[in-house]
Amino acid sequence: MMKVLSIIISFIVIQGLLITSNAIPISETSNVTFEEKYNDMLDFIVIGDWGYQGKGVGQHHGNQKNVAFVMKKWAERYNSQFIINVGDSFYKSEPDDHQGVDSVNDEKWKTAWLDVYEGRLAEIPWYSVAGNHDWYNNVSAEIEYSLTVDSRFFMPSLFYVRTNIINGEKKTKVAWIHIDTNIFFYKYDLLKNDQMKNNFDTLGWNDDNDVENKLRWIEQQLIEQQDADWILATGHHPLIGACVAYNYMPRLVELFERYGVSAYFAGHAHVLEYQTPKPDSPVAYFTSGAASRTSEGCSGKDWGMPEGTFGFLHATIVENEMTFSFVNATTTKDKVVYQGKLTARSIWHPK
Ligand SMILES: *[C@@H]1O[C@H](CO)[C@@H](O)[C@H](O)[C@H]1NC(C)=O
Ligand SMILES: *[C@@H]1O[C@H](CO)[C@@H](O)[C@H](O)[C@H]1NC(C)=O
Ligand SMILES: *[C@@H]1O[C@H](CO)[C@@H](O)[C@H](O)[C@H]1NC(C)=O
């Protein structure tokens, strides 16, 4: 029933767009859940805020490339199965460069992504969401690229759900909810970037109804995935400490807690940070936004790296246990700077 309802709702949304807008329709939500099967375990890397053309503005050394080098080493050592990309995939690299991408033919697909991430990183899918810098230009071109050029950059719509069935000794189900947080982090009336505002206009995202619709969509997906051992959410903007306080972002926390989300992965803050689950805040919050630039993080975190530390997050799920490591990849002499474990929601949130 839920599924039928969600298909009908998505259909209405898509139809609505075709009628009301003469720009290219942006696919907001996918009408299908993407199902994947794995053997024994899941292994993945979480990366955010990476899209310079090898180096950042004013940087003489390619920090993005150092991080990419270390990521490749880790992905090959652990046979990582995919990348979770939390957005800001394309920055303005030089003063005369543009934000985001212009089109599916933008040379940055090559210079910021294909040319930088090599070996296994160039073979496995990158499950992506859009960051604010992606919205500062042609965000729909990123969806179109995924649908028509190379689905390895996986972003069939702004919001989508994947399920991973892991066939080990015990069958384990992981549900991923990929969310575009820009609608929750920015308030339409306060938008400062013209192109972002244009994109919001194209979608008709100009009042609280759109926010409520998206929250309802997320809630419906969370209800449908209650049989999962793990529910993992990803979005661009962080929910750690003081960083939670933007506009509609606290509504996500409320939903995640109500429906037993295990963990939320984000970037935007250019740091590596972690907030441990607690009785009054049972979701684990990860920030991995230091893949090409660094800055001070969110105050109030339980753990974080100082400005100047580049890196990423690596995680493995075997049945009821997730082990994770934050990796300092500032130079190619990488080092684990934090390690931890989480337990499946099916243990602490029984079905
Ligand atoms: C889902 O959407 C796609 C494209 O938007 C459409 O081609 C397809 O028929 C839809 N599937 C269902 C089951 O509605
Ligand atoms: C956005 O990208 C698409 C796909 O390449 C292209 O067709 C469209 O013209 C672009 N829009 C703008 C405003 O440049
Ligand atoms: C991260 O690695 C760099 C380079 O090896 C090192 O200088 C820095 O101290 C490390 N940061 C931390 C917090 O360990």
What number of structural domains do the residues give? 1
Question: What Rg, in angstroms, do the CA atoms define?
Answer: 19 Å
pLDDT < 50 runs, ≥5 residues: 1-23
Largest sheet: 8 strands, mixed
CATH fold name:
Purple Acid Phosphatase, chain A, domain 2
CATH superfamily: Metallo-dependent phosphatases
Q: Secondary-structure element order, as H and E? A: HEEHEHEHHEEEHHHEHEEEEEEEH
CATH architecture: 4-Layer Sandwich
Average residue pLDDT: 91
β content, as a range? Answer: 25-35%
CATH class: Alpha Beta
Query: Helix/strand-derived class?
Result: alpha/beta
Termini separation? 20 Å
Helix tally equals: 10
Outline type:
globular
Count the beta strands.
Answer: 15
What proportion of the residues is helical, as a percent range?
25-40%
Summed up, what is this model?
It comes from Rhizophagus clarus. The protein is of the alpha/beta class.
